[in-house]
Amino acid sequence: MTDTVTPAATPDAAAPAAAARPIRTFHPRRGRMSARHADAHAALWPRLGLTVTDGDRTPVDLPALFGRAAPVVLEIGFGMGDATAAMAAADPDRDYLGVEVHTPGIGNLLALVGELGLTNVRVARGDAMELVHRLAPGSLAAVHVFFPDPWPKARHHKRRLIQPANVALLRERLRPGGVLHCATDWPEYAASMTETLSADPGLRRLPATPHQRPETKFERRGAAAGRPITDLRYTRI
Q1: What 3-state class would DSSP assign to 44?
Q2: pLDDT tens-digit profile of 144-169?
Q3: Domain tally for the chain?
Q4: Which of 13, 166, 171, 225 has a 20 to 30 Å separation from 34 between CA atoms?
Q5: What positions carry a catalytic annotation?
Q6: Residue 147 is assigned to a structural domain of this protein
Q7: Mean pLDDT of 224-228
Q8: Is 218 flagged in the annotation as binding?
Q9: Which regions are flagged for Basic and acidic residues bias (predicted)?
Q10: Helices then strands (H, E): number in the chain?
Q11: What number of other Cβ atoms are within 10 A of residue 128's Cβ?
Q12: Is residue 188 part of an annotated ligand binding site?
């Protein structure tokens, strides 16, 4: 969409509105839902879905959202949701809040939730960092950022999710001892992630261990292309 400037507007008057637009850390993707996805969305979204609107700072009451008080894991960019559903099924004592912009992925995760009878998953649609602003400090047990868009071109690095300001916000939402777990198949982004995460004064890197998560579609693609998989786990001090 192209912005329209009225004849009375001046460049100086238009500048604040442009500056207020958030820098997107994702490609806005659309896609057609299959009948399975559409049926699951129609049946489950009214009860399990949360729409994220830019600029909305209404606090999200996590116990009210899930119907219980339990540790919450935030899954940023869950793709088609297969890994999220698998983790939630294997971890019923924690709740999983997944946020995504890809419509078929949202439909697929909802379908999996219905098919597996999961009660500990909720699904948000929109910008993940806009959602993070609405969560209370110390409210998360873990944040997962698995295979985010690497934005490989230098001029697009400003769009990467793992940047100092975003990391500081994510860390504030973790409770003490909570874990920020990132993974990527791009070596240059892995190095950048390591530098950024290690520089945050409120995080401490955890020893390397097997990644302890289901393999994702993006991980399989990276491995098939010969790219190494890097997992980075940090805890809030």
Answers
A1: helix
A2: 999 999 967 777 579 899 999 999 99
A3: 1
A4: 225
A5: 149
A6: yes
A7: 86
A8: yes
A9: 212-222
A10: 9, 8
A11: 24
A12: no
Please measure the distance between the N-terminal and C-terminal CA atoms of the chain and give it in whole angstroms. Answer: 44
- What whole-number percentage of the chain has pLDDT above 90? 73
- For the stretch 166-211, pLDDT in tens is 999 999 999 999 999 999 999 999 999 999 999 999 999 999 776 6
Query: Is residue 8 included in any domain, yes or no?
Result: no
Cα 174 to chain center, whole Å? Answer: 14
In a domain, 1, yes or no: no
Q: What is the mean pLDDT of the chain?
A: 88
DSSP string covering 193-235:
HHHHHHH-TTEEEPPP----SPPPHHHHHHHHTTPPPEEEEEE
For residue 182, what are the domain limits?
A: 26-236
Q: Which helix H or strand E contains 65, and what residues bound it? A: helix 62-66
Can you give the pLDDT at residue 156? 52
Q: What is the CATH number of the domain that holds 213?
A: 3.40.50.150
Residue 177 lies in a domain: yes
d(CA 193, CA 148): 11
Q: How many CA atoms lie within 13 A of 24 on its CB side?
A: 10
In this structure, what is the dihedral angle of CA atoms 123, 38, 119, 112, given to the nearest 10 degrees?
A: -100
200 is in an annotated binding site: no
Closest CA to 216 of 128, 114, 147: 147
